[in-house]
Specification:
The complex is a heterodimer of chains A (192) and B (456).
Chain A lengths: L2 E2 L19 H4 L10 H21 L1 H20 L2 H20 L4 H27 L7 H28 L6 H18 L1
Chain B lengths: L23 E9 L6 H15 L2 H18 L8 E7 L9 E10 L5 E9 L5 E4 L3 E6 L4 E9 L3 E4 L1 E8 L5 E8 L3 E4 L19 E20 L11 H7 L3 E9 L2 E7 L6 E2 L7 H18 L3 E7 L5 E5 L2 H13 L14 H11 L4 E6 L5 H12 L4 E6 L15 H19 L3 E5 L4 H11 L3
Parallel strand pairs in B: 14-16, 14-18, 18-19, 19-20
Antiparallel strand pairs in B: 1-10, 2-3, 3-7, 4-6, 4-9, 5-7, 8-11, 9-10, 12-13, 16-17
Helix pairs in contact in B: 1-2, 4-5
Classes of the chains: A mainly alpha (192), B alpha+beta (456).
Chain lengths: 192, 456
């Protein structure tokens, strides 16, 4: 087979001014395994299972939908498709909405939400890691730190929201909760 | 293989270590990844459904979603304040040697880098054979991450380009790319092995050497007899004839003279072709063969020069001697015109030919190393030959796959290219130009086989 050797793809035909071309990220070495790191996939799967279990406790149909979402996340990881991951996360959100609509308890719903967010985040992060550094590179620390900050963010949110719910709005109507939330959103936008 | 020592943050080092090669940082790109896009909509939709359905659980879940909105918005992808240190196990390896490259990245800024991906700028001519030259990690200020990979050395000088550092904020919603330049260089100069006896054509200089000519004189091989002239050496008088006929006659022997040879190597982009994407290119094969020819010819007492047919200029005047041999080795190994990857720039054939003719000594013959993948190479050989510089074409065959039974390697395109190349070779031979081709067989073997066919 006659093939012009394309080893120069990294720097050979790049721009002189910008030696590092963004597009060459994928083309730089063809033997690289671009699948997401195992830890990210497994972490995403575990978090997805937790989310499905929590949603199942809230309402069975919601649990089924969230379980479907977890499978979708796995498929998205394996097929390295951000779009598939987004769709799966969307299905998961619908599942949580259904579970909540059918009168699921507060605590399982919160747990399902945070676990679903973590599952999607890990899967998506894994796919981007796979694109940029590949499966064989050392990525454990990176994935662990990412999962940790995500959990921290989720945990803080739950602490604030659930704390406010218990302390202030335990007996208030739902509208009051929503108004409280509106205030929080306004505050967040102001911070930004 | 990446080093399994998860050194990471464990080894905290003093922030400044004095004399250390500084890494030059170039900000390259910053962008939004948009991965959290739509989270606000989902959160508010959950709240909305919760309000309508009067379900506090949904409202609270939506509120947690708003927490993620904030998470995605705060934080900034910082510039990769990273000091790179790259050490190679051997900066002057032999071709084919495996060189272990160890990279240490230290966060010299005062902020942590929660998401750092490093892609090392491996030279395009080197192939990473073990472990990706990449890492993804997180670095606290002053912390170090180390990784190792192995490259296989190829002929030439290789300089590492800037490594690419991609940083993201904790949520991963913003991304920034930084180039980290740390100069590292290895030079790989192969030993030239002599390639046996290389037959030259009969264009020679006036100096004594080893190429038999059609000129009578002193030598070892019989050429002709002529009548005796005063002053002819007594040794060369044909005493048998004198005894038989009583006349004095002188034996003329073939004179053996030295030749001036220019090794011309096709290094145009089209010559960077290989049987497989990973295999050695024709340029690589040509350079190796040229190295063998160079040594063999110099040893035989000929004057040898080197030239490259390509966009970059490369010319080593024909010469002899130890210093010249060293220069030739250097040129073949590290000249940028013969680099393992194609040179940049456009190639202008007629300009090149004019310059080449001006430089070529009048009595020089040319050994032209080319894969013969286009008509230009063939016509060039004929044009140089027509100028009186006898040309021998030596053609590495990159059109024949290594294994003939591989169906993927036997496409109609491959067959066409192979056919065209064969036709060119036939035309050249028809025009009286010697041609040798070699594929899997080694170059000396191919030459030895071909020599049997050639008349002087």
């Amino acid at each position: 087979m006659v093939a012009v050797s394309r080893r120069e793809a990294t720097a050979g035909d790049g721009d002189e001014a910008d030696p590092i071309d963004a597009d060459s990220l994928d083309a730089s070495d063809r033997e690289r395994d671009a699948r997401p790191p195992t830890l990210a996939v497994v972490g995403s799967l575990v978090a997805g299972a937790v989310a499905a279990l929590a949603a199942l406790l809230a309402a069975p149909i919601g649990g089924a939908l969230v379980g479907l979402a977890a499978l979708g996340l796995l498929a998205g990881s394996l097929r390295r498709s951000h779009r598939l991951l987004s769709w799966a996360a969307g299905i998961g959100a619908v599942g949580i909405a259904v579970a909540g609509y059918r009168g699921g308890a507060v605590e399982p719903l919160l747990a399902a939400g945070v676990a679903l967010a973590l599952a999607w985040d890990l899967a998506d992060h894994g796919v981007s890691l796979g694109e940029q550094v590949g499966r064989e590179a050392r990525t454990r620390r990176n994935v662990a730190v990412h999962a940790g900050t995500n959990l921290l963010a989720g945990g803080l949110s739950i602490a604030v929201v659930y704390g406010a719910y218990l302390a202030a709005a335990g007996s208030q109507p739902v509208a009051a909760l929503a108004l409280l939330l509106f205030g929080a959103v306004a505050l967040a936008s102001a911070v930004r | 293989m990446t080093a399994e020592t998860e050194r990471g943050d464990a080894t905290r080092e003093p922030a400044n270590r004095g004399a250390e090669p500084t890494t030059e940082r170039t900000p390259l790109r910053r962008s939004e990844t948009g991965r959290w896009d739509g989270i606000a909509g989902v959160a508010l939709a959950l709240v909305g459904v919760g309000v309508v359905a009067r379900q506090p659980g949904l409202v609270l879940t939506g509120a947690v979603g708003v927490g993620y909105v904030v998470y995605a918005r705060v934080g900034e992808a910082r510039e990769a304040t990273v000091e790179l240190e790259r050490t190679v196990s051997d900066d002057a390896p032999e071709p084919g040697d495996e060189v272990v490259v160890a990279v240490r990245a230290r966060n010299v800024g005062d902020a942590p880098l929660p998401d750092l991906r490093l892609v090392d700028g491996v030279p395009p001519g080197l192939e990473v054979v073990d472990g990706p030259a990449r890492i993804a990690t997180a670095l606290r200020p002053g912390a170090t991450a180390a990784f190792e990979y192995t490259v296989r050395a190829t002929r030439g000088e290789h300089e590492w380009g800037p490594a690419r550092a991609i940083t993201r904020d904790p949520a991963g919603s913003r991304e920034r790319t930084t180039g980290l330049a740390t100069p590292t260089r290895i030079a790989c100069t192969p030993e030239l092995s002599a390639g046996g006896d290389l037959p030259l054509r009969g264009l020679t200089t006036v100096y004594h050497g080893r190429v038999p000519t059609d000129v009578g004189g002193a030598g070892v091989e019989f050429h002709a007899t002529r009548e005796y002239r005063r002053g002819d050496p007594i040794k060369r008088i044909d005493w048998n004839r004198r005894a038989r006929t009583g006349e004095l006659a002188t034996l003329d022997l073939r004179e053996e003279r030295a030749a001036t040879v220019v090794l011309l190597i096709d290094a145009r982009e089209s010559a960077y072709a290989a049987t497989e994407p990973d295999a050695d290119t024709a340029v690589e094969a040509s350079v190796e063969a040229a190295g063998q020819a160079f040594t063999a010819l110099l040893d035989g007492g000929d004057r040898v020069g080197i030239a490259a047919l390509g966009p970059r200029d490369c010319w080593l005047r024909p010469g002899a001697g130890t210093a010249h041999a060293a220069r030739g080795r250097e040129t073949l190994a590290t000249d940028p015109a013969l680099a393992p990857t194609p040179s940049e720039g456009r190639f202008y054939g007629s300009l090149w030919l004019r310059r080449f003719r001006r430089r070529l000594p009048a009595d020089a013959q040319v050994l032209f190393f080319t894969p013969l993948l286009d008509d230009f190479a063939a016509s060039l050989a004929r044009r140089i030959d027509a100028r009186g510089h006898l040309v021998t074409v030596l053609s590495p065959d990159v059109t024949a796959g290594d294994d003939r039974d591989d169906p993927a390697g036997d496409t109609p395109g491959t067959r066409l290219v192979a056919f065209e190349r064969r036709e060119r070779l036939r035309d050249l031979r028809g025009a009286g130009i010697r041609a040798v081709e070699w594929g899997d067989r080694s170059f000396p073997v191919a030459v030895a086989r071909a020599t049997g066919r050639w008349s002087r």
